[in-house]
Write a structure and sequence with these properties.
Pfam families: HET (PF06985)
Region (Disordered): 69-92
Organism: Neoarthrinium moseri
Structural class: alpha+beta
Strand content: 15-25%
Mean pLDDT: 74
Largest sheet: 10 strands, mixed
Number of domains: 4
Domain Heterokaryon incompatibility: 352-502
Number of strands: 33
Protein name: Heterokaryon incompatibility domain-containing protein
Radius of gyration: 32 Å
């Protein structure tokens, strides 16, 4: 909303105006702020040091008759109007200042919330600043004291939310609270909204962060949620809001936004519990290419090699990649890089590191037939991309000589060399002593190292107290784009399709992120903020869907291996495989033809340990259920694979599973032709599936848009209007175009409750209707016996060919 020029220079305004649009008409809001401006003009912009302790009472101009309305436009009693507070109400937020209050109606409630405006002199700010000096209450030897700027000290001392105590609500309780509205039995005193404005521009806020203010550092950190951040030189006016909503977890949140709302709102959550707040070791430095960081990484690697049994399991085949890069450093600087055919080395096996990175669209240096011989003499350092130079430097600083990089160790213009090397990916990453991941680089020019503000990466203690009774209040920007982040904060590297198998197959990965450096291995994780190894607890029940959903892809592959090696049945590891597929399909590929290559090494690893075979990316032993994969939203098709394979779909997918012992039964049969597979590639020569089942002619109708903008569709039977009584919903693989000739192919039926049917939506690929292509899946609820008889009573099964 617009703030109509408030605040003025030299004043600090506090207001719960952010959500007032919900209870006031636009005209009322405009009138309110106009009257507030007139009232503010009665105050001097600064107060001399010899001014009396107590400011004079507001002039009559501060009083207004603006009425606040409920959402239903019913006026409140006359007492709920703007006016001057009593002496007892003074000092709630700003000591020694007069304030105006307004009672604001809450949705669905006759109670009102306090609306506070206040003005504070510069001398009063200095008095409050002296009360806002905080240090840590424990572990003082291992942390730095918080440093705050003058404005943040004032906010900390005056924000009402920072005086909240933990709620008695249970930690696992579920509640819904709408800002500006009623929330059950929650007290009106448990909510407040205050907006402070002290910096005239974002540039001043960024300057305060660079000068060492911990809270400003958190507020100006890059927004992990993908909002548009204000640039450091922005002249836009800044508002800092403290929005209190007391709960078990914390007292509320702090936000910043510019007055014109041109940039995204940055949110910092407040917590009662004490999170890890150590600013130590390499995290003290603004750069991640320090000696302290390399020593920390060496410690992680040494601990892993010494104590982690799963990570120590090394191949007994003395495997080495066909080629590696030999790197050398002089005085801490990269001095030489040389391509070495490993067959020519004087020892059968040497420890090497591997690089996982985004290629991007830039023309990076590559190994081609014409550079094979020159690179064996010397790879020009000046032509190496930043990712490559940093990875070579990391290799040398960790004490190793050899590094494997795909674009420099595989001959890129040789189909024969690619055909030999790509299937070795599982061994290349699996046998590397360590994989370096350029996590935060969008392309090869991004590099591994970053410059960061360490204060933006750890919590700030805003209220000190007894941590045992949760009396402390912390501000924490915990949504960081680390290795396990998803959604909008998913790091650039993990949006690349090739990296899924690189990450899953590597025993140990050192992630160089945009915020800090992370460690990930088969048994533990760590980071600069939490340098001690966090050991993972492995579930003994790998068929548990919760376990399959929560584990990372490195752990998922490891659990799949353990289950298969112990003789586990299909049900014990198939969820883990689909975890990997879902993660893979959430990423992108530059070339569609790489759809299989980019996961083939991972698939072959799964084939080898399970002793089962894939057919166009689906398991041969379970083709019936495998073809009912579901896309999360309509995407694109490619001609690389048949329509019934998820390899043909560009977008994220997930598996559908049915309990045939719990009421589901099959309505069709699925068979593949008797053709042989392409050797060791998980694909098949034939693209056909033979399906025998019921086929119903249907037509599609768009019914609505969901909250996230994805269209929803319904199906209707063409032959009989009574079919409209059935609740058909379908998820198209691609958005339907024109008048498609569609058919529904029921595959699975539930006999429990009102019943449901899952099946495939198909369309003919030619006029003869001899072959069909999958275009989506459907879910049908039938309501009575008549509907069941309508579909299956007199129908006969028929054969179709799915391509």
């Amino acid at each position: 909303m617009e703030y109509h020029g408030i605040p003025f220079e030299g004043t600090v305004w506090q207001a719960s105006a952010r959500y007032n649009n919900a209870v006031m008409s636009r005209a009322d809001v405009d009138a309110f702020f106009e009257k507030a401006r007139l009232g503010a003009a009665q105050y001097p912009e600064s107060v001399p040091d010899d001014e009396p302790e107590t400011l004079p009472a507001p002039t009559p101009a501060m009083k207004t008759n603006a009425t606040v309305y409920t959402p239903h436009e019913h006026p409140l009693p006359s007492g709920n109007q703007i006016g001057s507070p009593s002496r007892g109400e003074r000092g709630i937020n700003t000591a020694h200042s007069e304030q105006s209050t307004i009672q604001r109606a809450q949705r669905g409630s006759n109670q009102a919330d306090l609306f506070v405006f206040g003005v504070t002199s510069s001398r009063q700010q200095r008095q409050q600043n002296r009360q806002a000096e905080f240090t840590f209450s424990s572990n003082r030897a291992s942390v730095r004291a918080n440093i705050f700027c003058e404005l943040c000290k004032f906010i900390i001392a005056n924000a009402r939310a920072l005086r909240f105590q933990p709620s008695e609500v249970r930690h696992d309780a579920t509640s819904i609270h709408i800002e500006g509205g009623g929330s059950g039995n929650r007290s009106q005193n448990s909510r407040c909204s205050e907006v402070f404005a002290g910096y005239k521009t974002f540039a001043e806020l960024y300057k305060s962060a660079s000068d060492g203010c911990h809270l400003c550092s958190l507020l100006t950190a890059p927004d992990a949620e993908g909002s548009l951040d204000a640039p450091p030189n922005s002249a836009s006016q800044v508002f800092i809001g403290v929005y209190g909503d007391k709960s078990f977890d914390g007292p509320g949140r702090i936000e910043i936004q510019d007055v014109h709302e041109r940039y995204g709102r940055k949110v910092i959550n407040l917590y009662f519990d004490s999170p890890s707040a150590k600013i130590q070791g390499s995290l003290q430095y603004k750069n991640t290419n320090t000696d302290e960081l390399f020593e920390l990484a060496k410690g992680w690697l040494e601990h892993c090699r010494k104590h982690h049994d799963q990570c120590r399991r090394e191949s007994t085949s003395a495997f080495m990649p066909t080629r590696v890069l030999k790197v050398s450093c002089t005085n801490g600087e990269l001095s030489s890089v040389q391509l070495c055919p490993t067959a020519e080395l004087n020892f059968p096996r040497a420890p090497y590191l591997a690089l996982s990175h985004c290629w991007g669209t830039q023309n990076i240096i590559q190994l081609v037939s014409g550079t094979l011989a020159p690179f064996q003499r010397d790879v020009p350092i000046t032509k190496l991309s930043q990712n490559f130079r940093d990875a070579a430097l990391i290799t040398a600083h960790l004490g190793y000589q050899y590094l494997w990089i795909d674009s420099l160790c595989i001959i890129q213009d040789s189909p024969e060399d690619k055909a030999r090397e790509i299937p070795k990916m599982a061994e290349i990453y699996g046998n590397a002593i360590l994989t370096i991941a350029a996590l935060g680089a969008k392309d090869s020019s991004g590099g591994c190292f970053v410059t960061r503000n360490p204060l933006a990466l750890v919590p700030a203690l805003l209220r000190d107290g007894d941590a045992d009774v949760r009396d402390q209040v912390w501000a924490w920007n915990h949504a960081l784009p680390g290795p396990d982040a998803d959604g909008l904060i998913r790091p650039p590297l993990h949006r690349r399709g090739w990296v899924v198998q690189e990450r899953a197959l590597a025993r140990r990965t050192l992630h160089f992120g945009s915020a800090m450096v992370y460690w990930e291995c088969l048994e533990a994780s760590a980071s600069e903020a939490q340098p001690e190894m966090q050991e993972r607890a492995f579930s003994t029940d790998t068929s548990d869907p919760v376990f399959a959903h929560q584990v990372g892809i490195k752990t998922a592959l490891q659990a799949l291996r353990r289950s298969a090696e112990s003789g586990g049945a299909w049900e014990q590891w198939e969820g883990l495989w689909w975890k990997l597929v879902k993660e893979y399909t959430a990423s992108q590929l530059t070339r569609v033809n790489d759809k299989w290559n980019a996961i083939s090494a991972l698939a072959m690893e799964a084939e080898q340990c399970t002793k089962m075979r894939l057919y166009h990316g689906l398991w041969e032993c379970n083709l019936f259920d495998e073809i009912l994969w579901q896309c999360l939203e309509p995407g694109k098709r490619n001609a690389f694979a048949p329509s019934w394979s998820w390899l043909s779909y560009e977008g994220q997918i997930q598996a559908k599973r049915f309990n045939y012992d719990g009421g589901f039964r099959r309505l069709a049969t699925v068979n593949k032709p008797g053709s042989f597979r392409v050797a060791a590639d998980g694909l098949g020569r034939s693209r056909e599936l033979l399906i025998r089942g019921y086929v119903f002619q249907v037509y599609s109708e768009q019914i609505q848009s969901s909250d996230n903008g994805v269209q929803r569709y319904a199906l209707h039977l063409c032959e009989d209007n009574s079919g409209a009584e059935l609740v058909w919903r379908w998820s198209p693989d691609v958005n339907p175009k024109g008048e498609w000739d569609l058919a529904a192919l029921p595959l699975v039926k539930s006999c429990a409750g009102d019943g449901e049917i899952w099946g495939m939506v198909v369309r003919p690929t030619d006029a003869s209707k001899l072959s069909w292509a999958r275009v989506g899946i459907f879910r049908l609820y039938w309501l009575n016996q008549e509907a069941d008889e309508l579909l299956f009573g007199e129908g006969e099964k028929q054969d179709i060919v799915l391509v």
